[in-house]
Description:
Blueprint: E1 2-9, E2 15-22, E3 31-36, E4 41-48
Antiparallel strand pairs: 1-2, 1-4, 3-4
Amino acid sequence: MREAIHLGCEKCTRRNYHTTKNKKTHTEKFSVKKYCKFCKEHTTHKEMKL
């Protein structure tokens, strides 16, 4: 049931991280604050399509 997802920076829209999530129990989009090496700052990263 777990599917791979990519996390992309909201500021520059580059995909920096990847993880997995259970799509059956978490139907909403995943978002978390992480460090973006391209923006050189902590920004919100949201789930993006593969």
